[in-house]
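Hi everyone, sorry if this is the wrong subforum. Our group has a chain we'd like a structural model of before ordering constructs, and none of us has done structure prediction before. Sequence below.
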Amino acid sequence: MAVALRATAPAYTPWASFRLGLMTGAVYFACTLYWTASTMATYGGIMLPVAALLTGLLVAYLSLYIGAAAVLLGASVRRFGVAGLWLAPVFWVATEWSRGWVGGGFPWVPLGSSQGSVLPIAQLASVTGVFGLSFLIALVGTAAAVLALSRKRQHVMGAAAVFVLVALVAGGGMVRLADGRLATSGRVLRVGLVQGNIDQDMKWDPKYREPILSRYLRLSREAMLAGAQLVVWPEASTPFFLDRDSALAEPIRTLAKQARTPFVIGTDEFAGDQIYNSASVIDSNGQTTGVYRKIHLVPFGEFVPMKKLLFFVGPLVEAVSDFSPGTDPAVLDLGNGMRGSVAICYESTYPTLTRAFANGGSQLLMVITNDAWFGNSSAAYQHFQMGAMRAIETGRFLARAANTGITAVVDPYGRVVSQAEMFQPVSLTADVRLLDGQTIYTRTGDLIAWLCAALTAAMVVVLRRRA
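Answer:
Right subforum, don't worry. Here is the predicted structure as tokens:
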């Protein structure tokens, strides 16, 4: 808003607009990514001032995207006057979408994810994806800015049209929620989600290996006693390599075989000289029948980007395992005609991945994660809300198993069906439904983002010619 208002001044230069965009981005990302400094200091073994510097660099990098949008918006307003403000949602979505894939991407907290708890509005994601929600929010802000700057009839009518559009979106969302057929369709599957609540310092200490495994087995039995037909463990839950340490894995395979219940287990996997963050399916015969390898790795968590440039974070480089990325968005056979997919941790922020799962035949979205890194910060809640948006986009139930929480089941409308208390060792059992249909979003993908990117490119050409 500040960028839009100040850019109307004829003397306001592109550099001044860029500075305002950076300031906006700094506030936006500093308030949502503040927790990264303490995470790197606590688990990366580096001094807090250095960790704070790295967080500042991350915030500065992400702010560049908003700065770029501000430059384009300033140029549009100088060229077209107040009418140029209507391009703000286009520039915002184009730059927000691009930061999800440039350099591997960092799509954390897109503007649209803020509507995850506003369910009537959030249903728009089933049509446009999260970027459609970002566009709508930016459009409302634009309408307010236009009204603050002008009372001309065409501007007032344009702002009124925006508010009518919001009412239509909310009304359509309420109709979709009231219909609710996705929550009562499809085959019922009772899922047991295990939340181990294992401290990071204990995870790879050999003396805790047996207690950790015993806890997961005990919680799994509790889930089975509650009727679970599928048991899901969190990301990297085994304190050993599942397919390499066969003796340690034998109790899990025995339990699956005795209970005739398949497991989905997060574990690290060696393949040749490479290590993967994986999810393995152990079927009701105790055999590994499928593996998904994490495609989108966490920067500074599973690999350190630009190691040579960031030479001063040596302890972090030593602490972070150098994982290899997977390449196949595999849909896993869960037995008895059931097909499911697993997004591991940070991958639940990528809408294109869960869309690929749904289009590949996944009937159930699963997210396994270890959010112990986040501590008591807001990051765990941000992460959960972004994952819940994937359920709305794809029209699928989402079952989420997290080491320390949030462990929960979300229905295809973004409603939380069941949720476990955080920071407690617990098993959560709830019914989901296996669904095969497609939403408009799974058919068309991020069409609105592509259109915004194309229009932004066209406007760059126009503005350069008109300069």
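For your construct planning: The first helix runs from residue 2 to 6. The chain is about 50% helix and 15% strand.
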